[in-house]
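Render this sequence as a predicted structure.
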Amino acid sequence: MLQNYFKTAIRSLMRNGLYSVINIFGLSIGLACAMLIVLYVKDEWSFDRFFSQSNHIYRINHTMRDPMGGEHRMGITGYFQGPHFSAKIPAMKAFVRVQKSYQQIKTGDDIAAQEVTLVDSNFFSVFSFSILSGSAEYALRAPRSIVITESVARKQFGTVDAVGKTIQLKDGDQFQPYLVGAVTRDCPENSTIQYKMVLPLKESPDQEAKADNWFNAFLTTYVVLAPDGNLTTVGQQMNKVYHSEAGSFIASVEKKYHFTDNTTFSLEPLTAIHLDVTYGSGSPGNGSNPIYSYLLSGIALFILLIACINFVNLTVARSLKRAKEIGVRKVVGGSRGQLMGQFLGESMLLSLAAFLLAIIEVKLVLPVFNTVANKSLALSYLLDGRLVMSFIALYLATGFLAGFYPALVLSGFDPAQTLYGRFMPAGKNYLQRALVVLQFTLASFVIMATTVLFSQFKFLTTEKLGYDDSNLVLMPKDNLTVAETTLLRQELRKDPDIVGVAAKNGGSAMTGGTVNDHQSIIFIFETIDEYYLPMLHVPVAAGRGFSTKYATDTTTGVLVNETFVKEAGWKQPIGQVVKFMGQDSNRLTVVGVVADYHFEPLNQKIRPQLFVMAPKGDLGSVYIRIRPGTEAASLAYITKVFRGLFPMTPLDPTFKNETNQKNYESEARWKQILLFSAIITIFISCVGLFGLAVFRPSGGRRRSASARCWGLLLRVWCGSCRGIFSGWC
């Protein structure tokens, strides 16, 4: 009997080859999408779980609350938190501080900037990275020693056998040889901590003595808790230690600057950091948003549902040609259960073929998916016990659910009606209509979501930032002095294609201060020269800009942005006084208000910003505006000038508008992912439209209501898709 069912199923599928191909191909696309999404989600949720102590490692976070009720949450600390908390809290068994920095490396005559990771000596004891050779713990304790990854070893020495070799790193004003003490495997892709070169973190006695290190935040501190450690209790103990250790300093700050400290510390599990959007990931560019996993899972479910609905609709449509076969089987004694078994068997056979084809499709599409999703996934990731069982369950569920309804309908045909050619499909058929409505809804939702995301991405990439970032070259230069900036400007302006040169500090720093003698405020603190804002075409909304004509501009004068004025509650900002730590003068006078501009990505709210013009430097980057169309020649001249003035400085020029575009790389990837999802959804839905178009009563010429609905939907889609695809193309 089973052999007969199998032969009948094969003959039926071959006799209706077009339907079989459409059914298998449509279902395989849905299954392939589900497999790709499972790979992505598994990788996202597997971050940092490979460490042997992953369940006991936590990161110290801190939260600063401003008087307006806003919270500034950061996953970084200063030097003090790790050693001071660990010394006073028994549940903390160890601490490790990790700081990203840049070091100049010399290879032959070439000098380049290389990112290095500064860590405490027990780093590799806490984080179980794989050591290929050498002793990493000894290397982090010995003077002028370094730990490198295998990729760095191959790049520098052409072999991973690099222990005992030396690397030239800049130490002070000269390059010094650093001995390679250990070589590790490259960091796994699903590790929050990523490094190439590891150096020991060293604190100077001056840094250890500075009480304001409690307020600094520039590195990441991890702690290892005892298995019986309670997060709530440890968090309370941390804040108690903080107020005990830093109490006198906090009181002096409040007395001098009238700045109220509202800082609290907390712990976050290592395994939660990658998907943290509150405090941020531990490695820049390495974090993710859990909403992406949920969104992708929803998209995969939508596509899989649409594919299964198509399977049902096409099978029912094909049943019209098998009505007499069913009638004959019933007349000769076939039971309804046997018929259902036969049709379920055919469904399982189709599902198996679709699964096998889906695996092939995943193999072919995976490189493209990795590029779009910025991953390094492999098909071997599916060879996991739980995943294999999950896919077997998915196969059985898909085959059963996709074949159960057609089997139930087909096995219920009246043999007399079918043999006399008087068979008509069931009149109301509520389930099929519900499936059509569901398919209509899901497909429309994906298309609308794609349209919305395209509009959002267009806004992010075309909206005005409040300053001119075109033809603007950014050149980093550490410890740049005012005198060096003046000399650099004179040399660069000798080229007529260089129309402006300005300098500011590298990056941005957040600090707190006091306005109105008692109101605390948290803001972004920038150090600039007098040419910076005019060259960026940032207008002055009130007062005036910086100028060397006013001696007080380099001592007590400050500029603030409009958001700063709003948070301070000033109606007349000019002449107002700001006090904050880190300045020689504790009374800084506002001389001008600059218009708000997006100094951070557009998807972040503009924060209060304050500018000072330092007379002694404290600058870290040079902004150079060039004439349009002179990019190659201007970059060559800029490089020549920098090499002549700063021969020991690595050169890394970038265009500001390109840097701004990189802020939206995540959105760009999601635009592509949703675009492909919309294409797949439309394709599978069109397959369903084809199936419904041929599903008509015997002898009838009028299309079914479902087919007419799909025809209307297709016309609506065409209008939407033209906008989507034209923007993409």
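Summary. The chain has three domains: 2-45+290-457+666-728, 54-272, 472-660. Confidence is low (pLDDT under 50) at residues 697-706, 723-729.
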